[in-house]
TrEMBL record:
Descriptive protein name: Diaminopimelate decarboxylase
Pathway: Amino-acid biosynthesis; L-lysine biosynthesis via DAP pathway; L-lysine from DL-2,6-diaminopimelate: step 1/1
PROSITE patterns: ODR_DC_2_1, ODR_DC_2_2
Highest taxon of source: Bacteria
Cofactor: pyridoxal 5'-phosphate
Chain's gene name: lysA
Species the sequence originates in: Zeimonas arvi
Chain positions found as N6-(pyridoxal phosphate)lysine: 60
Keyword Nucleus set for record: no
Length: 424
């Protein structure tokens, strides 16, 4: 059964009516389905059965502690990109030895902390970072486990803002440079070269780019072996897309099977442990943003439904012109359907969540902005001093608060009025 579905015209999350959640917790509120998150992760884990595979959940997609906890209990590893995300994994009970640390700009402090707690691997993205990591590890008297993130120059066919595997992107080490940088890594005294890493982009809806990147990775693995550098793992990144509108991404199992088939054709393909860093495909369709219509407003040109969620809550539409389906929470009352622009209260013309949607809605109605589990709350801000919404996790007929709604006073709690010397 779909996690979000209608029963007698009422939209439910599992067995809980979204209208009841709005009543209990207010709006805007993010609602996640535990079963949907668990089954997405389990589909990856099931497809990997019989192989040495670690699916590392990319925290950046949604870093709520309850979600980390849920995935940690199912055996997930974690892909992090900051010291903050590292602390979240630990606070949620995740295991340091299952963390891979990605990102182009790791600070010394972040490196120290990650070495102290013993992360699984650093995905290093530049020569300077490699040298710094060696130095930081040496000062601590430790060895740093490393992979180099290589940039395979593969077009993943995604929105230009989220492609990462092209030569022009800031990510990774150019494919042609990789052998030289690996030699450097192998020569530095405080590093252990463990693997190779590659992540080509996000919301990828076909299998081909993953296989093209894997081929480039395997070519490198062979050149490295010839140079006497033997790797233990391949980290193939994340990036599998989901259905927002009419996309038809491969299933999680189909992607993993295609990858394993390709690996099996390589003479040493079975020797490597395989890591993945999936984010969106685990949580994206497991969450919605629940919002209430404040006002309807029609001018000569457009119909606007002004809702209580905005671009500060879900910025994907304004940032990428991303499509999110919009569903009425109560689909029973027939009203004349018009084409509505669903917009928020923020003072920006770019503040919209959906445009030109045929919806039958009235003031006070509840709407669900669908497929909002990934890069929703995680990318939200407090622009216009808007407290961010609550987060609720549903399991069966239970709904629990997993993040309280912010209060306005929280938002300026760390600010100061003019201190004395400047007050005059
Ligand atoms: C290094 C890295 N790993 C994993 C991910 C997760 O990607 P996705 O949510 O598309 O699976 C990202 C984001 O694109 C990333 O930058
Ligand atoms: N934040 C983006 C994806 C970027 C993925 C992070 N590398 C989105 O909402 O689609």
């Amino acid at each position: 059964m779909e996690a979000f579905h209608y029963r007698q015209h009422r939209l439910l999350a599992e067995d809980v009516a979204l209208a009841d959640i709005a009543e209990r917790f207010g709006t805007p509120t993010w609602v996640y389905s535990k079963a949907a998150i668990a089954s997405a992760f389990d589909e990856f884990a099931g497809a990997a059965a019989g192989r040495r595979v670690l699916v590392c959940y990319a925290l950046k997609a949604n870093s709520n502690l309850a979600i980390i906890d849920l995935l940690a209990r199912r055996g997930a590893g974690f892909d992090i990109v900051s010291g903050g995300e590292l602390e979240r994994v630990l606070a949620a009970g995740g295991d340091a030895s299952r963390i891979v640390f990605s990102g182009v700009g790791k600070s010394r402090t972040e490196m120290q902390r990650a070495l102290e707690i013993g992360v699984r691997c650093f995905n290093v993205e530049s020569e300077s970072e490699l040298r710094r990591l060696d130095e930081v590890a040496g000062a601590l008297g430790r060895r740093a486990p490393v992979s180099l993130r290589v940039n395979p120059d593969v077009d993943a066919g995604t929105h230009p803002y989220i492609s990462t595997g092209l030569r022009e992107n800031k990510f990774g080490i150019a494919h042609e440079e990789a052998l030289r940088v690996y030699r450097l890594a192998a020569s530095l005294p405080n590093l252990d070269v463990l693997g190779i890493d590659c992540h080509i982009g996000s919301q990828i809806t076909t299998i081909e780019p993953f296989l093209a990147a894997l081929d480039k990775v395997l070519e490198l693995v062979d050149s490295l072996a010839a140079a006497g550098i033997a790797l233990k793992h391949l980290d193939l990144g994340g990036g599998l897309g989901i259905r927002y509108d009419d996309e038809t991404p491969p299933s999680r199992a189909a992607l993993l099977q295609a990858v394993f088939e390709r690996l099996d054709r390589h003479p040493r393909g079975r020797e490597f442990e395989v890591l993945f860093e999936f984010g969106r495909s685990i949580v994206g369709n497991a969450g919605v943003l629940l919002t209430r219509v404040e006002y309807l407003k029609t001018n000569a040109d457009r119909h606007f439904a002004i809702v209580d969620a905005a671009m500060n809550d879900l910025m994907r539409p304004s940032l990428y012109e991303a499509w999110h389906d919009v569903l009425p929470v109560d689909a029973s009352a027939p009203r004349e359907a018009a084409a509505w622009d669903v917009v928020g209260p923020v003072c920006e013309s770019g503040d919209w969540l959906a445009r030109g949607r045929r919806l039958a809605i009235g003031e006070g109605d509840l709407l669900a902005i669908m497929s909002a589990g990934a890069y929703g709350m995680a990318m939200s801000s407090n622009y216009n001093t808007r407290p961010r919404g609550a987060e609720v996790l549903v399991s069966g007929d239970k709904a629990v608060l997993v993040r309280e709604r912010e209060r306005v006073e929280d938002l300026f709690a760390h600010e100061r009025r003019l201190p004395d010397p400047l007050a005059g």
